[in-house]
Structures are given as C-alpha cells and as structure tokens.
Specification:
By secondary structure, the protein is an alpha+beta fold. It contains six helices and seven strands; from the N terminus they run E-E-H-E-H-E-E-H-H-H-E-E-H.
Length: 201
C-alpha cells in the first residue's frame, strides 16, 4: 500500500510511504531489487529506490485504521502488517518520492502509473502468462472482462507493438494502469465512466 504524505512539514512534502500487507521485513528485498536490478536496467536517474525506515507498531496500526475506509472494497481483506518482524524491533516501510504529486506548490502534475506485469513468454506459440491468467481470473470472478493487454508486446522494443499494448491497457486497466492528477486518481481499475475532459482539464 502506497500512501502520500501531507501536512506542513517540508521534510515530508512530495514524499510517499510504502507499507506491506504481509512480511514487512521483505521491504528490504524490494529495496535491494530496485537498487541492484531496476537501477541497472533503466538507469539510476529513472528509478526512485527510496529509503527503508522503521515505524512503531502503534503508528502503522493508526495509519491502517485511517486509510481502511478509503481503500477499494475488494482490497480490504488484508490489513497493513503491524508486527515487528525485523531484529530492529520496528515495522519496516519504504519512504520514497511521491511521483504523483508536483514537487512545487501551485503546479499541477499528471502521472501515469504502469505496471508491466510478467513479460516472459513461457513457450513459443502460447499466450503470455498474463493473458493465460486472465481466463483464470474471469472464471474466479476476479475481473469482469478479459483484457487484451499483453506485457510481451509492451516489452518487445517494437514501437507498433508497444503502442498496441498501451491502447489495450487503457481500454481495460484492471491493475495495470492508473492515471493521477495532482495525486488524485482519475483513471484506475475501480474507475467507471471517467470523463477525461473534465478530470484532466
């Protein structure tokens, strides 16, 4: 769960806090992966690794209580992990730049969050893992419609296929793409009948 920090303290302006719903000590693995793999792949200037911080159980429980009613109903089955699992005796979280908020006051920011998903093709001639999982999700009632999005196309390096993948992702966003304006979600899996002209004006 990623939370935007608000308030008058300039130290936390344009910052976000990422908390885990289970095994909060694994935030160290998330940070190490971003620092070692993603930074090398995309370049350090394009990856916000953040900083691992420790919070008291009481603080995380208070955050969990405060945000619970604002989370989508289908995501409320898991609460934030409030158990200290690291030897330091605190709940680990990741403090990072809030890329959905403008870094300056009185300036608007439009942010597109894209989760590429698994772009590996398991076997030649078969659909990608993401597309195969779509059928399982629709049978289980987890999604209402199949998405035509294919992460293999997105990560192909071929402009025409990348464009096709992006169009499909925006057509049926599911948990793949979200759009924010000044930190407010204007398009996401839960959004219906989004009026782009009004929301992006």
């Amino acid at each position: 769960v990623v939370l935007g920090c608000k308030g008058g303290n300039p130290k936390f302006r344009s910052m976000a806090l990422r908390c885990r719903k289970s095994h909060n000590n694994r935030i160290l693995d998330d940070w190490a992966f971003a620092a070692c793999s993603s930074s090398r792949l995309f370049g350090e200037e394009f990856v916000a690794n953040g900083r691992v911080v420790g919070l008291s159980s009481a603080n995380v429980a208070a955050i969990d209580e405060m945000i619970f009613e604002h989370r989508p109903a289908k995501r409320r089955c898991l609460r934030l992990d409030v158990v200290p699992r690291h030897p330091c005796g605190q709940v680990l979280a990741l403090r990072m730049p809030n890329l959905t908020a403008a870094p300056l006051e009185r300036v608007s920011a439009v942010t597109v969050e894209l989760k590429p998903k698994c772009g590996l093709r398991e076997r030649r001639g078969l659909p990608s893992r993401f597309q195969l999982l779509q059928h399982s999700k629709i049978r289980g009632g987890k999604v209402a419609r199949l998405s035509g999005y294919d992460p293999v196309k997105l990560l192909s390096g071929k402009p025409a296929l990348v464009r096709e993948a992006l169009i499909e992702a925006f057509g049926e966003p599911q948990n793949t793409v979200r759009v924010f304006v000044d930190g407010r979600v204007v398009m996401a899996e839960e959004s219906t009948n989004v009026r782009w002209e009004g929301d992006l004006a």
